[in-house]
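A protein record pairs a chain with a discrete description of its three-dimensional fold. The following entry can be read in just this way.
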Amino acid sequence: MAIVLKIPFDLGILEENKRGAAKAPEIISKNLKGNFVDVPIDKGNFEETQKNIEKHALEQYKKGNIVIGLGGDHSVSYGLIKAFDKSFKNKGLIYFDAHPDCQDYFLPSTYEDILRCVIKDTKICPNILLVGIREVTKAERKYISNKNLKIGGKKDIIDLLNKVEHVYISIDIDVLDPKFAPGTGEPIKNGLLIDELMEMLRMIIESKKVEGLDIVEVCPDLDKNNKTVLVATELLERFLTL
């Protein structure tokens, strides 16, 4: 059974004008039927919020459920992925994002540091695949090279699925081209087409290896004609049948 953890937290985004993703969980989920759980947010204590996220995810994994995290900014994935890491062996992470999010090791994690923190604080690396990456800083490029992180597409997804037994999917909505998902804080041109993303997700879902996933960085305040919210809602609807 799939359980959706609603995580209305976006203070991992340092620039106030890029915030608004905290509104997404309620807006995306309101017209969907599923098993939804609200994760308590302590805006004055980021570390406590991450502990709450991890605790709720661990509780669901212990019950044998699939965990879906609905953010919120990408920093919420830290607690989710830590719970996944503690719950499974022979595991991998498929990271859909326009950015590698490896700027610094900084706790509590920001949306720019999440993957670097995950790599340091879990045992998932080297089974990590980055998909859709197209804006990388010099520091991140060096880190990716040092860690031998893989950036790839469909063939690399197949290779990873053949290698591991349990998979976590993290989807930053900015992996899509802005013409499909303009409502996000860091839209980067030349992103994935919706059909491309859906096809890759279909492959992963059909492997029957998905144990956890998240959908993050949807900002309704920055959206145009509700495009991004609708795409995120479609994604969540597909995963609710896992």
Observations:
- Strands lie at 2-7, 35-38, 66-71, 91-96, 128-131, 150-152, 166-172, 210-216.
- Residues 2-239 form a domain with the Arginase; Chain A fold (CATH 3.40.800.10).
- The first strand starts at residue 2 and ends at 7.
